Structure of Protein RarD:
Amino acid sequence: MSLSTAKPIRSEHSYGLIQGTSAYLIWGMLPAYFLLLPAISALEFVGVRVIFSLVFCLLLLAFTRQFKQFLAMFRDAKAMWQLGLASVLIAANWTLYALAVLTGHVLEASLGYFINPIVAILLGVVVLKEKLRRLQWIAVGVATVAVIVLTVGLGRVPWISLGLAFSFGFYGLVKNKVGQSGTALGSLTIETVWLTPLAFGYLLWLAVDGQSALFSADVPGLLLLAGSGIITAVPLLLFGGAARRLPLSTLGSLQFLAPLLQFILGLLVFGEHMPFERWVGFALVWVAVIFVLVDMMRIPRTGSMPEPKRLG
C-alpha cells in the first residue's frame, strides 16, 4: 500500500520538475531568439508579442475547452482591475527586456532577474508586512552593496536591471493578490486583452507611417514574430503547472536557471564586456542569491515558520 501511494507522489514531483525546468530554460534562452528576429524596435516587438499572445491564448482556450471559465472571470470586477494593473507591469517588463537585448545589454537583463527574488522579499516586508529572517536580511544587505558597486563601476545606476526586477516583483505581487480567480490561462488571456487595444493601435500607426517591421517582414521573419505568442504563453503555463506540484524551495532554486543562461549568452554569444567592477557586482549578487537559496532550503526542514506566500 505504501509503495502504491508513493509512486504517484514521485511522479507528480518529477512532472513538476520537468515543467519548471522547461519554463526557466525557455526564459533563459530567450535572448538567442532575438538574434533571429528581423530589425525591430523594443516597443513594436512588445506590441507584436501582445497580439500574437492573445491569438495563441484564445486558441488554447478553445482547444482545452476553458472558454466558460474564462468568460466567468469577467464577472469579478476586482480581479479584472487587478489583472489590468498586472498587464501594465508585465508590459513594462517586456519592454525593458526587449530594449536590453536589442541594445546589447543582456548581462544587465540577467542581473535584473538575479536581483528579482531579493526585490520580492523587500516587497513582502513593505507591502505584505512580512518579517524577514536573518539570512533574508543578509541577502538584502549584500544585494544593496552589489547595486552600489555596479553603480559606481558603471558610472550610472543599473536602471535596466532594477526596472526588470521591480516591474516583475510588483507583477508577482499583484498576481498574488488575484489569487485563485480563474485559471492561469484565463488570467494570462485577460492580461493580453487589456493590452491589445494599445498594442493594435501602435502597430497600426507604424504601418500607416511606413515604419512597421511587422508588415515589411518576409515570410520567415513574420513566422518568427508570430512565434512570440508561443514563447510568451508556453513557459508561463509550464511555470503554473510547476507551481502547483513543487514546494516553494524547489521552485525558488529553479528560477536562477534563467538569469544564469542569460548571463552565459551575454558573455559568450553577444560578446558583452565584463570589466572588473561588474564581476565584483555580479559576484556579490550571487552571494546574496546563495543566502536566499539556503534560507529557502531551511524552512521546509525546520518548520519553524510558515511558508511565505508564493508570488506569481
About this structure: Residues 301-312 have pLDDT under 50 and may be disordered. The longest helix spans residues 2-36. The radius of gyration is 20 Å. The chain is about 80% helix and 0% strand.
